[in-house]
Every structure is written in C-alpha cells, then in structure tokens.
Design goal:
This protein has 309 residues and is an alpha/beta fold. The chain has helices spanning 49-56, 67-71, 94-100, 120-131, 137-150, 167-179, 197-214, 225-231, 249-253, 259-268; strands at 5-14, 23-33, 38-43, 72-81, 84-85, 103-106, 185-189, 217-222, 234-239, 242-248. Strands 6-7-8-3-9-10 form a 6-stranded mixed sheet, sandwiched between helices. It starts with a strand and ends in a 41-residue tail after the last helix. 45% of the residues are buried. The model is unreliable at 270-291 and 296-309 (pLDDT under 50).
Length: 309
C-alpha cells in the first residue's frame, strides 16, 4: 500500500430535489494520508470537514443511515481509501462492507447515539458479532475489557447500561466500539464533542495512546485548533468546502497569508503540549474483565450531521 488515504480533487454534493438544486459541500479537496499518520481537519461550522470525513469512512450514500448522509455523494475527483476506490462504490456492496470493516468511525454524535437497550460491554462488542455471530464470547469479553481499560474507564462500566453513563464515559465507549475490530484507519469526528472539560483531556490521551500502540492511521475532525494540535502533527484547514492550508501546524500557522488562517493563528496563542515526535509526515497539496455477550440486534450505523457547532 502506498498510502492510507489519497484524495485527489474530491468534490461532494448534497443531492437536489424537484424544487432545490444540489449544494456543493466539498470542492476540489486534495491531500494524502500516509500509513501511521494522524491528520487533523479543522474549520468552522459548514466548512465541509465532517462531509469529507464521512466520505473517507465510506458512509456516504447509505440510505440505512440518516437522511443527511444518504443525500451526500462524491461527484468529482478520486478518493482512494486503503487501496479501494470509494467513488461510485455501491452502498450495500460486498466491497463497501469489506472496506468499512477495516475502518473505525467515530461519528460526531456517537456518544449520544449509543443503543439504550444494551450494556456498555454489549455496545462495544456489537461490531464483532455483526461480523461473526458465532465469535467466541470469552475472547470477545477479553477484547472489550482491554479496550475499556485503554480508554481509561473502570471495568465495572462493562455491565452498566449505556443510559447510566456520563457524557465522557459514553464518548469513550463509542471510541472503544470504533476500535474493537482493530481497524487500519480511524476516522474520528469531534472525538471530544460534548465531553466535560475536566475529562476531555482523558479522551484525547486515550486516543493518542491507542494510536501510538496500534499504529493505525487516523483522520481527526475538530473545531478546536488547540485540541487538534495536541492530537496530530499535521493539519488541513477547510473553509467553504476547500482546503486553504495544509501541512505541519507550524508551517501552516506561523506565517499565514489567508485572513481566516491569520485568525486561527491568533486564537491559538501559546503552544500547547504536542505528541512525542514521530516519523510521521504528510505529503499534501492544496486544492479481561467481564464477558461481553452478543447484543440482541445489530449495532446501528453512526453517522453525523455536517459540522454541528
């Protein structure tokens, strides 16, 4: 594999109707994510960052998801994810299913949309049983327990109902579910959204720690530039559907010429703590605890609305 994600002049639209015209959400986006890298995508509400994330995760055009996701489609350019061409890939095809099985997707509102009739352990294990209903329950339980510990939750959470958890705990359960199949690529849309400021750092540290240990590639969408900088070494800044700056944080923000980039640089203020140096680089162009049981029904697909504040 040459790269985890290759986006070449990608454009995405919301389908029109009998009385409305199509709306361009992403317009000519180009970048490359190498294996083992984390790329942060930042921008204001409506910039297109959640739309490109959903496209990379293979979630566009799926009518089983929410209406907003089903209406979006790639209309231009080339998007290749884990060596699979995504544009025109049928939503219910085996190739799409195989691809999404290799991608962990943490939707913007994933923590708010956990199934209320399952325990946290059943929720995390759901993707395992969606893939193989006869998977060994003891092994699944061990996998769930290891992830619960990795996202800094007590093992007792496994037996708790999802409705009993705090927002921070629910978000970490959603993160564990996205990673339970050990994906090659994680797409996380606002991973700390709605999490209390006192536990937000714990969510971000869990994410960076898991990526460091498992070495998966990651796309992290954020409206908070400081959080993005704490998660990733490289950033793509979007505005009005286009990338207006991309590269290492310092390169993008030290001497900005675009007015929006100047505003971002000014709001960043003093540097925040960044991850330990790695060999990651982004080549881009602008343009044992409890045993998890099988859930009573397949886990619902999480999708996000575009760039909620």
């Amino acid at each position: 594999m040459d790269a985890a994600v290759v986006a070449d002049d990608v454009s995405i639209e919301y389908r029109g109707s009998a009385v409305t015209r199509p709306v361009r959400a992403v317009d000519g986006v180009t970048f490359t994510l190498e294996h083992g890298e984390i790329l942060a995508i930042v921008g204001e509400s409506g910039s297109g960052k959640s739309t490109i994330a959903a496209a990379i995760a293979g979630r566009l055009g799926d009518r089983r998801a929410d209406e907003s996701t089903a209406r979006r489609r790639i209309v231009g350019g080339r998007l290749e994810v884990l060596d699979q061409q995504v544009r025109n890939l049928p939503a219910r095809s085996r190739r799409r299913t195989r691809l999404t099985g290799r991608i962990g997707y943490l939707a913007q509102d994933a923590g708010d949309r956990l199934p209320p009739d399952l325990t946290a352990g059943e929720t995390i294990a759901a993707p395992i049983y969606a893939r193989d209903r006869r998977f060994d329950r003891r092994e699944a339980g061990l996998m769930v327990a290891r992830l619960v510990d990795a996202v800094h939750l007590p093992l007792g959470v496994i037996e708790a109902g999802t409705w009993e958890l705090s927002s921070g705990q629910r978000q970490r359960v959603a993160l564990a579910r996205a990673l339970i199949l050990e994906p090659e690529l994680l797409v996380a849309d606002e991973p700390a959204r709605g999490v209390d400021v006192l536990v937000r750092q714990s969510v971000l540290e869990a994410l960076t720690g898991l990526q460091r240990n498992r070495r998966f590639s990651a796309i992290v969408v954020s409206s908070d530039l400081r959080e993005a900088r704490a998660l990733a070494d490289a950033v793509a800044v979007m505005r009005s559907g286009r990338i207006i700056g991309i590269g290492a944080f310092d390169d993008v923000l030290d001497s900005p010429t675009d007015p929006y980039l100047k505003t971002l640089a000014a709001t960043l203020g003093r540097p925040v703590r960044r991850p330990a140096p790695t060999s990651r680089r982004v080549a881009s162009a602008v343009g044992a605890g409890a045993m998890a049981s099988a859930p009573g029904k397949p886990d619902a697909v999480d999708d996000t609305q575009e760039d909620m504040p």
